[in-house]
Records
---
Amino acid sequence: MAWQLDPAHTQVGFTARHMGLSKVRGRFTNFDGTIDLDPANPTSARGRVAIDLASIETGNADRDAHLRSPDFFDVDNHPKMVFDVKSLAPAGDDHYKVVGDLTIKGTTNQIELDLEYTGEGTDPYGNRKVGGSLSGTINRSDWGLTWNVALETGGWLVSDKIKIEIEGQLAEAVKTERSAA
């Protein structure tokens, strides 16, 4: 059955290190996705999530503009980041390994994320929901995101390792009946 990302109850975020000293957190505010999922058999899940890269927010307008520029995401030429879910495998009680293809700036690489499945429920309006947390770490350079500045003391301004953190819900897609014309 088809499920849609519930944007009101989902956060797509990331964390990078600045100068190796502190974590800078960011998020994307515009995304959509459809997952074909049978909650009784989560390992059968397949789907696609598309993230609007222009919706990036880090709490600093200058940094956000730089991340949208050709130095990083180049949103004028590559407006979306896409994750295609290929497989889920059990990894303990309510935990799964999610394997999929992540495409950024026209480059696709397979990644593995950890999923903590938090369950299924029905909201007060009768809508079925499932929830969970996805996390993992990627090297941004694998997608050609290599802009950086060497520090005089050694190291780099921006870490290559980026932690992905997604907390969210899926809502069961509602089937609509077509009336005879």
Note: The CA atoms of residues 17 and 159 lie 5 Å apart.
---
Amino acid sequence: MRVALLTIVLSAPALAGWQERYRAGELLLSQGRPDEAQRALIIALREAEAVAVEDSSLVVILDALGRTEFKAGRYRRAKTYFERSLGLVRGKGTAEEAIALTNAGTALQALGENTRAEEMFRRALQVQPRNAAIWHLLGQSLFEERRYMEAETALRQSLTIQEESADRVSGAILSDLASIYSAQRQHRQALDILDRAITATPPGQVRARMLANRAILRWKLGHRADAESDLTQALAEMEAAVSPLHPDVAVILHSYAAVLEITGRGRQAKEIQKRAQAIDSSFIALTNSRWLTVDWRDLK
């Protein structure tokens, strides 16, 4: 799972135009309409800057813009907004600083800049050492760097904090633990953990990623029909959760095309692959630690 971005909340009542625009943007984002949210938030930012609001208000808008761009899959733009937000709270040791550091790290992570992402997460943990979400993100970055023992330690720390807080254990953490086991070729153990993760996760973008990862594990273990079923379900859930043009959709399409090619359905595979490439052309290539990495051409 890509852990949900942390949110900076506007606590003051809506008195000014920029505040109304901001709240409209947040509402649109919550409704899954990131492009409309972006337009409202851009206007909010311009209006806020025009009346020289306090930095704390600008931080709220920049945070919302970053989350909006992230939701739309525009990770580089998201990083820019999060870094601007961080510049206004850096060194204050506040919850807002921890949020800005974490969100900037998440955007860097999505762009494959895992060393810088790790730095951001460790700085955030200095402010909030008992934050399960940040430990989770740190574990993901360590996984991308193939530091598997450290990654597992971070993920289990996240689980421990959740359990001690009586929170529901996140399927996302279990999913990432499965990734660690799979990377070390312990596929059956990974599949068992991933089954638990999927059961604990509601339908949507997060579970769609898990289903796609389970498809890879099932394929490796020889369960081809189950693997294809997982990919079909993953594609449907991902398109419903984000949009047919989101980069996460392309990841699933590439896997689905490979399965079709391997199983002798070349014409269908070419159509699916063409669609995936069209999405790729609109986005920078990403490394996503919530996906198991595999070259389907190496599978029999």
Note: The two ends are 28 Å apart (CA to CA).
---
Amino acid sequence: MVRSEIRGRVLEVTLDRPPANAIDRDVSVALYEQFARLRDDPDLHAGILTGAGERFFSGGWDLKAAAEGREDPSTDFGPGGFAGITELFDLDKPVIAAVNGMAAGGGFELVLACDLILAADHAELFLPEVSIGIVPDAGGAQRLPRRLPWFVAMDLLLTSRRLSAAEAARWGLVRSVHPAADLLPAARDIADQIAAAPPATVQAVKEIARRGEALSVEETFAAMPGWPAYSKALATDDYRETADKWKR
């Protein structure tokens, strides 16, 4: 269902639930457990999230469970919200999404909750919810207009149009596009680069970007001294040593 592996300082999480890597409450809780592990383990500095197989990253919410009456849009998906990360607002370690195939609905929302996105060249991302009478409220309507120009985001939200990996890269949503066989190695290279940096600094940068997204620049500057990851970074030996060098 959800597999994980530690490579050095990087936690790799694989959503493995054939045929479409669909997400129900149990999968959401299992994903949360991995993201909480990344958050809480000081030896882990970054994460990679991908899907098993080549056709689907994730088909999103488990519609079979919904059709059988086991779940509905009001379902409590556990800590971290849908997919275990869409409402995990205290995760200050970066997560890279390696989108190995189709990311539909909640699968696209899961991607949007990550910090960097790489995609296989055949991947597609789309939000079909409006066309079937569901609100994409696990990050689609909230995050997509912050990640893309307004008119592009609204086009995708309202028409359910499929976004190719290449177009997503042109808009800056996807960092890079790769042949399927090269996708995970590329994600690993980036994760290792991030994990090699001082972890407190990396976490401070994500905290500032995450918290500051809802604030003005002026408000962000005023609030930063009270934010825990930023304060921790300023107190590290790495910061002091660099600051001392600058003073000389």
Note: The chain has eleven helices and ten strands.
---
Amino acid sequence: MLKLLASLIIFLGTFYLAQEVLKPAPPCTTPILYSLGTFDKRFNLSEKEFLNLLRDAESIWEKPIGKDLFAYSPEGKLKVNLIYDYRQEATKELSKIEAGVKQDEASYRALESGYQSLKVQHDKLEASYNLRLESFNRQSMEYESNVEEWNRSDRTDKNKFRALEAQRLSLESELREIKKLEAGLNQSADNVNSLVARLNSLGRELNLNVEEYNIIGTDRGDTFTGGLYTSDEIGESIDIFEFENEDKLVRILTHELGHALGLEHVSDKDAIMYELNLGSSKLLTEVDLQILKTLCQTN
């Protein structure tokens, strides 16, 4: 009897310890480890400089609550990618145009020409996005129909099951690519809108009899300028596509690190976690700080 009781106590103790080990760590107690993934040097940044800016972004979240929330490790599962494409090219061109603008009609016409070029590029991107989304929707409907057919069957055909699973994984992969394309489309709209605002303002300042250009609209919802956080079965990543300067880059990195923590967008337009990169400060607003404290249970 005593042996049985002792064995039961040992079993219960082992079970309790196992439960404690398996219990997820409380929020903000274990740093999120990140590493560098794709790194395009056309941004004219070295890996060392980029990591220093990442540490600046880390500290914006860490200092206010005195916790180590992130840490660099070559084996870090959160991959931070620096991806150079048409978005950064458009930003560079816009900066060149803006830098050369003088308060005269010739400058206005040069700005207008730059706008037309960006607008053509944006329209092509939008057309490509719409075609890809339409194709994805058709494939999704086909997949749903196949799933319904499978559910009506005896569900013993392994080949059909494998085909369904391959179709599902293909759709998930395509959806990730569409989301990236969508983020690029929104960034393109931001670039065109910035130039539109400058065109309209300069035209009024010069009192020119010119067309007032409209701001490009989008029904997909804007995302934070320049970056995208993704978490799926493949892993976690932060993709950086575009930034005007290092201060903007730090804000983008800080925003996407916020998503990696589990924070969502807020309505405060000055906040780091607002959906667009409108602010200029590299400090948390009260709204940012409050959602961070709530997440980390430090209130």
Note: The beta strands are 32-39, 70-72, 78-82, 227-232, 235-240.
